[in-house]
Amino acid sequence: MTPIMQLESARLLLRQWQDKDLPKFAEMCADPRVMRYFPQTLSRLESAAVIGRVRGHFAENGYGLWALERKDNGQFIGFTGLGEVGFDAPFTPATEIGWRLAYEHWGLGFASEAAWTCLRCAFGQLGMEEVVAFTAQANLPSEKVMQAIGMVRDLEGDFDHPNLPGHELQRHMLYRITREQWQQTLHE
Ligand SMILES: CC(C)(COP(=O)(O)OP(=O)(O)OC[C@H]1O[C@@H](n2cnc3c(N)ncnc32)[C@H](O)[C@@H]1OP(=O)(O)O)[C@@H](O)C(=O)NCCC(=O)NCCS
User: Fold this and answer.
1) Is residue 2 part of a domain?
2) pTM of full prediction above 0.85
3) Domain for residue 1, yes or no?
4) CB under 6 Å to ligand 1: residues?
C-alpha cells in the first residue's frame, strides 16, 4: 500500500518524521511531566529508536504515528497516529490510536484535533472497522482525548499491560470506537 505521508487539520500538519525532529522529541521524552504515565523517561538514543520504529511501521503498514507540526510557526510538537498493537491481549489484533505532545503545547486542543484527523483517515482512506486506545488508569489527560474524539470506554476491557508486570502503571483502561460510532459523531 502507498504510505499516507501527510494529513492536515485546521492548525496542524501530520507529516513524516524529519531528522531535525530528534532534538525536540528527545527533549520531550526526557521530560518527567510528559512521561509521567510511562515506566521511565527515554534517553536520546531510545527516542531515536522510537523514530526508527515509527518509520518502519509506516513502511510496513502505510500509516503510523505522524509527526505534528504547527502550521502557524512550523514547530514540531510531538506525535499522534495509528499503530498495530504490539502485544497479545483479549482485544488484539487491533489498531490503536496514540498521542504524545511536548508539555508547552498541552491545553490548546492540538492532541484532540490531530486524533480526530487520524480517526477520519482510519475510517476513511484506510477503511478500518474499529480503533482502540488504552492507557494507565490514572492518565486522565489521555482519557479526556479519547472521550473528546467520541471513543467509548469498554467497561469490561480493563487489562494488565503485559510489558509492565508488577508495575504500579500495569492496570490499563480500554476505549474503542467503531466506524459506525465515528459516523454518528459526524452528525452530532
Ligand atoms: C495526553 C495529552 C496528549 C493531552 O494533551 P492536551 O493538550 O491536554 O489534550 P487536547 O489537545 O485534547 O487539549 C484539551 C485541552 O485544551 C483546551 N483547549 C484550548 N483550546 C482548545 C481548542 N481550540 N480545542 C479543543 N480544546 C482546546 C481544552 O479546554 C482542554 O483543556 P483542559 O484539559 O484543561 O480541559 C498530553 O497530556 C500528553 O502528551 N501526555 C503525555 C503523553 C501521554 O500520556 N500519552 C498517552 C499515552 S497512552
Assistant:
1) no
2) yes
3) no
4) 34, 37, 98-101, 106-112, 135, 139, 141-142, 144-145, 148
